Amino acid sequence: MTSKSTIPRTFLISSRKDPAGTLIHEELCMILKNEPGIAPYIRHLYSDERLIFLNGPSIPGDSDRIIFLSRHASERPRPVMTVHVTGNFGPADYGGTPHTLTPAASELMHALLNGLVRYAPEGYEVMYEATHHGPTDIPLPSCFIEIGSSSIEWNDRGGARAVAMTVRDALVNDTSTVIRMAGFGGTHYAQRQTEISKLTRGGFGHIMPTRDIQYLTEKMFLEVISCSQAQAIFVDGKAMSGKEERMISGFAEKYAIPVLGQGDLIRLKQLPFSDYLKIRNLVLKDAPGCSCIVHDLPHCYEPVICTIPDDLLQEVMKTAPDEFIQTLGPLPIVHLTGKGKACHSMFITDKKYSLGLSDQLISLCLTLIQDRYACSFEGDTLIIKKTRFDPKKAQRLGISPGPLYSELMAGKSILVGESMVYPDMVMTETEHRIMISQRQI
């Protein structure tokens, strides 16, 4: 929870023309009466105008952020609670100015969305909405929190109180670990972005749905990033054409904006995003085209590279790939993937954890390989002996392809005519040598 000295000053705004916003505001005021430590940081505005047509310059700018308390309406009504920021990617069909976005309170929106998940009464869905209406001339970072989609929900005092409790908690939540995101692709009800924010520290500001990508230019891309204060973007590639995805990825690459998926954000755990950027910059320099998979790395103030013999890694990735990746889980490292490889022989960690880490990784590889094959050492050379079924040897012994092959490969002896054939009679032994410094073992 944020300390009193750092509670942001918040403007709560509702419209007298909006029954839902009025009810939420009323419930919130009742809650705040019992919160004397919070009340000094809150200002209230009751507008006579619908919020989507609100005149931004009429809003005093002596706060840090704005929460609009509002109703949600839909052509196909259903009980929902939503969070979104305002603006228009294209025409201004519902207030505001065309092709104009407002500053988003992205961290606050993350707190509100997850608060609604906790407090929403049974039967309500909780989700982000894409950016889609005014007002646009807003002087402060802001967002809407809404209840809908019909008069039943607008007048639901239990639902309004749930929204009010959500706002109350968000007013004092510590949002310092939220990763500010912008989203591209998907439907109006941003299901993928909602799921990401429920599961990770990724908090969305502006979300451009697939229908509005027609309005995306380089200038608009930069405005989305700027108004969201986005540290990274999410691209729902499955919801758009390949051409559209390449355009967005191209803008992101040009301006060095990381593109993160849900898995990336989950794996970041509590790693500070500034540390992640240090790691990413190192990867861009030394392993361009690769992606970072973060394991149990709590921080990375000074990223360093650890390597293991590439042919040793290739061997373990052929022998036990899933087990090897699983063993990386509790280690304070980042492994790299991409360019046709699930794991590269270059790893990244913080300098604090680097001592002995290469040795530990090599030991993990050796353990997995030795569990499956006969291994020995000659000086610095690891010798791996493998036996495999040789169909040519079997054919020379008069054994035709079929079920008998399977029995021999399973280690069973078979009778061919009057002769017994043992599995080792149809096996071929190969030897693979890998140079490993004894210091690394």
Detail the topology: elements first, then pairings.
Layout: E1 10-15, H1 19-32, E2 42-47, E3 65-73, E4 80-84, E5 87-88, E6 100-101, H2 106-119, E7 125-128, E8 142-149, H3 151-154, H4 157-172, E9 179-184, H5 191-199, E10 202-208, H6 218-228, E11 232-235, H7 242-254, H8 262-268, H9 273-286, E12 291-294, E13 303-307, H10 310-319, H11 321-328, E14 334-337, E15 346-350, H12 357-370, E16 374-378, E17 381-389, H13 391-396, H14 403-409, E18 414-416, E19 419-421, E20 427-435
Helix pairs in contact: 1-4, 2-4, 10-12, 11-12
Give an overview in words.
Its EC number is 3.1.1.96. GO terms for molecular function: D-aminoacyl-tRNA deacylase activity; zinc ion binding. It catalyses: glycyl-tRNA(Ala) + H2O = tRNA(Ala) + glycine + H(+); a D-aminoacyl-tRNA + H2O = a tRNA + a D-alpha-amino acid + H(+). The chain has 441 residues and is an alpha/beta fold. The protein has 3 domains: 4-260, AF0625-like (Aminopeptidase, 3-Layer(aba) Sandwich), CATH 3.40.630; 273-370, no CATH class; 374-440, no CATH class. The protein is 33% helix and 24% strand. The chain is built from 14 helices and 20 strands. The chain has helices at 19-32, 106-119, 151-154, 157-172, 191-199, 218-228, 242-254, 262-268, 273-286, 310-319, 321-328, 357-370, 391-396, 403-409; strands spanning 10-15, 42-47, 65-73, 80-84, 87-88, 100-101, 125-128, 142-149, 179-184, 202-208, 232-235, 291-294, 303-307, 334-337, 346-350, 374-378, 381-389, 414-416, 419-421, 427-435. The chain has a 6-stranded mixed sheet. It is elongated. The chain starts with 9 loop residues before the first strand and ends in a 6-residue tail after the last strand.
